[in-house]
Specification:
The chain is α+β, with helices and mostly antiparallel strands. Helix content is 38%, strand content 27%. It has eleven helices and 17 strands. The strands form four sheets. It has a five-stranded antiparallel sheet, sandwiched between helices. A hairpin with a 5-residue loop joins β11 and β12. The chain is rod-shaped, with a radius of gyration of 43 Å. The termini are far apart.
Length: 426
């Protein structure tokens, strides 16, 4: 009582109002609570005959008490599907467990409308445990059903959007794969006195790479080759790749000197992209002249990793091309030439930096030039295609450590065939 002495008149009014509300609740009869409850109530005999039902449920059904009590069974209130479920699941579970909770069913009104409800039933037993009747509550589930329907519709829409996105991505990947292949030779030509092998690893099917290579005839027993890497990815990089391949081929037919060819490419790229975003690439271009006992190689490099030579004696070393500049950055660029000869069993390997910049080991260290040379030296000197096969396995072993496209081109002088056994016996 002391805690109320400091209350204002307004506070006393609130207390009085609360007291009136409690008094009204105390005067609320149990009968009215049953009849006007916010859910449906009914009691049935053990065979399902309705013995008692409240006004709320009758209003939902659109029926009178006279039409229901003693004349209908609980299952008669349900839709056809609900009756079937009641007979096969609901009633057996109720008989076995004595209670069934929160079962979703549909009741049917006199106007033919379905009303989703949640039903809970419990068996009342006598003092000696014999079942006497079933008490059932019926809750209006229309809002819940509408929510579930909307949720299902949303999930279906999301699933359809996901399927459509996957289909769109697959179509995009197919288109990109076709476009990527158009930037590479369909197959390498057959060159007398020369073996050749190639491989292209695509890091992401969703992005166009800028790596490229080619091998083509120049006439007079000479063959041109090149391999390079355009900066960047995507359609713009593909456009630069296409321009680069076209320019290298055209320049080689005009004057096949490797330095001159790369100089022409540098001029074309610099003039084409001088007014916008700078586009550049690295590349090695070279000319091969196969003969009866060796293949002469004359090449030049513009900012590209040095070519690697696997010798028939089991050694491997780089062909240095120091000082070669990026192609397309400056109006005048320096390119470094180099010459070598490939004898039977030797292989010249050109590659893009996706190979040497792959991440390996727990510390995710770069694979590097030294590791590539050591790996190549460990492989049997059995020709370009065998080396490409070994490198393909190496790339696959990098897993997610290989995050850039990688192009490989191997060129070599055929190793002599083993002598027939009869010659050895002779």
């Amino acid at each position: 009582m002391m805690c109320r002495t400091d209350q204002s008149p307004d506070g006393e009014h609130d207390v009085d109002a609360t007291g009136v509300a409690f008094t009204a609740l105390l005067e609320d009869s149990a009968e009215e609570l049953y009849e006007q409850a916010p859910c449906g109530y009914l009691s049935t005999l053990m065979d399902g005959t309705i013995a008692k039902i409240n006004t709320t449920l009758l209003e939902w059904l659109g029926l009178s008490r006279r039409q229901v009590v003693g004349r209908m069974r609980f299952a008669d209130l349900l839709t056809v599907g609900g009756k079937l479920y009641h007979e096969t699941h609901f009633a057996p579970l109720l008989q076995m467990n004595g209670e069934v909770s929160g079962i979703a069913l549909d009741i049917k009104a006199t106007d033919g409308q379905r009303m989703p409800v949640l039903v809970t039933s419990r068996v009342k037993t006598s003092d000696d445990g014999e079942p006497m009747l079933v008490r059932t509550t019926v809750f209006d589930a229309r809002d819940r059903r509408a929510y579930e329907t909307e949720l299902l519709r949303g999930r279906q829409a999301a699933e359809e959007a996901r399927r459509q996105a996957e289909a769109d991505r697959e179509r995009l990947q197919e288109a990109l794969a076709v476009l990527q292949q158009s930037l590479l030779p369909a197959e390498l030509p057959t060159v007398p006195g020369l073996e050749a092998g190639s491989y292209y690893h695509t890091a992401s099917p969703d992005l166009l790479g800028g790596d490229f290579y080619d091998l083509f005839p120049l006439g007079a027993g000479r063959w041109a080759f090149f391999l390079g890497d355009v900066c960047g990815k995507g359609p713009q990089a593909a456009a630069v790749t296409s321009l680069t391949r076209y320019t290298l081929r055209a320049a080689a037919l005009h004057d096949p000197d490797p330095v001159h060819v790369l100089t022409t490419l540098n001029t074309v790229l610099h003039e084409r992209y001088t007014s916008g975003e700078t586009r550049y690439c690295t590349a090695i271009f070279g000319v091969l002249r196969p003969s009866s006992d060796h293949v002469s190689v004359h090449l030049a490099s513009g900012g590209h990793p040095s070519a690697l030579i696997q010798r028939a004696d089991g050694t491997a070393h780089y062909l240095p091309t120091p000082g070669g500049m990026l192609i397309g950055v400056l109006p005048q660029a320096q390119f470094t030439p180099a010459r070598t000869q490939l004898f039977p069993g030797d292989t010249l390997l050109l590659y893009t930096d996706g190979l040497t910049e792959a991440r390996t080991g727990p510390k995710r260290e770069l694979f590097g030039d030294d590791a590539l040379r050591a790996f190549t030296a460990q492989q049997p000197a059995t020709g370009p295609q065998a080396l490409i096969t070994a490198l393909t396995g190496l790339l696959a072993g990098f897993g997610d450590g290989l995050d850039d496209d990688t192009a490989l081109l191997a060129l070599g002088a055929p190793a002599p065939l083993p002598a027939p056994a009869s010659e050895h016996l002779a």
